[in-house]
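Here is one chain, start to finish.
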Amino acid sequence: MRRLRRTKIVATLGPASSDQASIERLFVAGADVFRINMSHTPHEALRAYTAAIRAIEQRHGRPIGILVDLQGPKLRLDRFKDGGAELAAGASFVLDSDPKPGDQTRVHLPHPEILAALEPGHRLLIDDGKVQLVVTEATRQRTVTRVEVAGRVSDRKGVSLPDTTVALAALTPKDRSDLEAALDAGIDWIGLSFIQRPEDVSEVKKLTRGRAALLAKIEKPQAVKRLGEILEQCDALMVARGDLGVEMPLEQVPGLQKQIIRDARRSGKPVVVATQMLESMIAAPVPTRAEVSDVATAIYEGADAVMLSAESAAGQYPVEAVETMNRIAEEVERARDYLAEIKSQHPKPEATGADAISAAARQIAETLDLAAILCLTSSGATGLRVARERPRPPIVALSPNLATARRLALAWGVHCVVTEEASDLDAMVARACRIAFREGFAKPGQRVIIVAGVPLGTPGATNMVRIAFVGADDVGAD
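Its structure:
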C-alpha cells in the first residue's frame, strides 16, 4: 500500500462510510488518516469505527492514523416565543440573562461568560454570520446591540464572537467524556476545537499524558493572533477554514492558510487544510474546477494533509471523493515546478543537532541521488524533522512503536513501517536496507541514507547519518 504521493489525505467517517467495508474502500482509495467527529458520534460508534480501522490496518499491514475531533463549546441563543424573529437593519436588539423566551427586541443568551466578556464595538455573528450585531452597551447581565446585517434569528442558532476572548474552559463536560472514550479506544490524534489561547492546549495535554497527540484547530481570530504560542504547545495544526471564514473576512482566509502552513512547517509540525475542499462532491460525482485548484493550492503550499469532511462522511460519492483527491495530489506532485515551489518556502534549520542532521541528510540524499532517506525513530521526532526538510527522495520511517507509526501517518511524505528494535548499529543498517527493498523504495545496487539516534532507542537523540548500499543479500525476508 505504498502511496504515490507525499501529501496525506484525511477522510471523515459518517453515515456514508460507517461500516468496515466502506471504510476499507476509502483506505484503498487513498485515505491515510480517518477523522471521527464527536459532534455527531456516540461512544458506541467511536469504538466500532476504531475496531474497524484497526482490523483494516492489520489486514493490509499499514499503520493508519485515527483523529478524534472534539466538539468544543457550542455558543447558542436561547428560544423565542414564536420560534424566531425578524431583525431590521439599525434596530436595537438585547441579549440578556433573563431566561424568558425572546422576541424582536431581546433574547436570552445562556452563556454568562459571554455577557461578562462583551464590550462596546464587539461583533456578534448569528447563524454563521447571516445576521450581524454590534455591541453598543454592555453589562454582566445585559448587552445592547445594533443590527448591522438584518435577517431572521431563531431558536438555538449559533453565536460567533470574532472580537471577544471568552473565559471558557477548553473542554466542556461532553468533551471530557469524549476524550476519555477516545483515549480508552486507543486513537492517535485529538482535534481541539474553539482554541483561543495556548493554555487551552496545555490543559488538554495534562489530561492526555502522552496517550495521544494534540492537533489544534485554528478557527478563531484569537488563535491566529497567538499562533506561535499555540504551536509551541500542540503537535499539529488544522486550518479550519469553515469557522475561520465566518469569524474573519473571507478574503483574508487564503493568506492566513498560507501563513499557518508556513509557520507549522517552520516548527516541524504537521498541518492539515480542511473544509469544503471538494464540497460539490457531496452530491456530484466530479468536483468543480475551482475545487480542484483549491486542493492543488494547498498541496503547492506544502500542507502535510488535505481533508474531506461531509464529502466522505455524508456525501453520495465518498470513495470517488477520496480517489479524486488522491489523483489531484499525485498530479500536482508530478508537476515540474512542485518541488521548486516547495523548496522556495524552505525554512532555515533550527540550531539543534536534530535539525542539522536532517538538513544534512536531505542535502546528501539529493546531491548523491540516493534512493531513500530511512529514519529510525522511536518517538517520531526524527521522522518529523526530516519531513520538515521536504526532501526529493522518499522518506521511510522505521519505528518499533506502532503508536508512533500511526501518528506519523499524518506527516508529509513519511511512509511508516513498524519493525523491531535492532540490537546494534550494523544490524540496524542491514534491517533498514532490507525494508527499503521490501517496501519498493530501493533496488540492489542503489544507496540509501540512514538517519538515527545513537544509542539506539533514545528518543529525540537524532545524531547520526550513514550511507548504505542495498545489496543482493537484502532481497531476503526481514
